[in-house]
Amino acid sequence: MKKLYVLGTGQLGRMLRQAGEPLGIAIYLLSADSKIEITIENRSLITAEIEHWPDTQFTKKLAVNDSFINRDVFPIVSDRLFQKQFLDRLNLVTVPWKPLLSSSQWDEIFSLLGTLVVVKQRTGGYDGKSQWRLCSHSLSLLPNKFYDNAIVEKTINFIDEISLIGARGYNGKIIFYPLTYNFHQDGILRASVVLRDVNSLQKELEDMLACIMNQLNYIGIMTMECFVTKKGIFINELAPRVHNSGHWTQNGASINQFEMHLRAILDFPMPPPIIYMPAVMLNLIGININIDWLNDPIIHLHWYNKEVYSHRKVGHLNVVSDDPMKISIALSRLESILPPTYAKSISWLQKKLSRDKN
């Protein structure tokens, strides 16, 4: 039996473990303060379900352990300043940005990036946390500790938010999943959909992500989030791991993103997966489980067994069929038994499905 360690004990790690079981892979989830000794000699590999972790005695050891796959990539991609600088060096178009070093920069920043900007902490922060939308009248909302520890981005008027998930093996082979359309609300991913209609941007984004992964010599799954605008594509962020916007692959692909990540880092075969479309993913946020969700046979529940509280992702629903109308009907049934806050997400999904002309 193959053995693999995963830094992180959240739902992504647990889903990696689930994907590994049928392949005979024993997966052990590690906290940042783990006491376990991992050596190169025992041939056990290490991956991560997160890109940010505390600086502990254990993680300091991992930082110099050759068994830690992508060990040297995480410091680049996990820091938004370093990530932006890396993408600029590759001449890939990102959201226009500036490092935030001091309060004396604001006049220059607003002149360059516009009157409404987004401030993001360099490391950490997700689901809208440690991020602010600011104008000249709201600067007092930004804590002083984030000066010299954040970047500022231009607010983008986008047509679509999309993500591309790719997996790269040791031989340089890269497998891509279809582009995913994403819907965010209050900074949190609420829903994703993959359509049968082939997106004309697929090849362009594949070339961009391939360039990134090859330059980093990255192994495994990487996700690239982008904005689609009238002026073209802007890269928003990279995630060096399996990603929430790829959860639809658990029921919409013959090899889901979690299994593909394991195949890549363990040097297993990586054939292109068969994709079942359309496929929808709806995040379950801050609500209790309801078995009535399971009354429709094309709805699949993935529950994380986490404590439920406001704004916390506690599970997701995948809805997959070759008929967009069947998915739309299933979503309407879900809307009747989900809280009213899901109406916007379901309406957005149904509009996307109605344009699936394949």
UniProtKB/TrEMBL annotation:
Name of the gene: purK
InterPro entries: ATP-grasp, ATP-grasp_carboxylate-amine, ATP_grasp_subdomain_1, PreATP-grasp_dom_sf, PurK_C, PurT/PurK_preATP-grasp, Rudment_hybrid_motif
Gene Ontology CC, one term: cytosol
Domain ATP-grasp: 84-266
Pathways involved: Purine metabolism
Known EC number: 6.3.4.18
Keyword ATP-binding: yes
Protein name: N5-carboxyaminoimidazole ribonucleotide synthase
Originating species: Candidatus Erwinia haradaeae
GO molecular function, one term: ATP binding
Record key words, sorted: ATP-binding, Ligase, Nucleotide-binding, Purine biosynthesis
UniProt enzyme class: ligase
A biological process term (GO) from this entry: purine nucleotide biosynthetic process
Keyword Ribosomal protein attributed: no
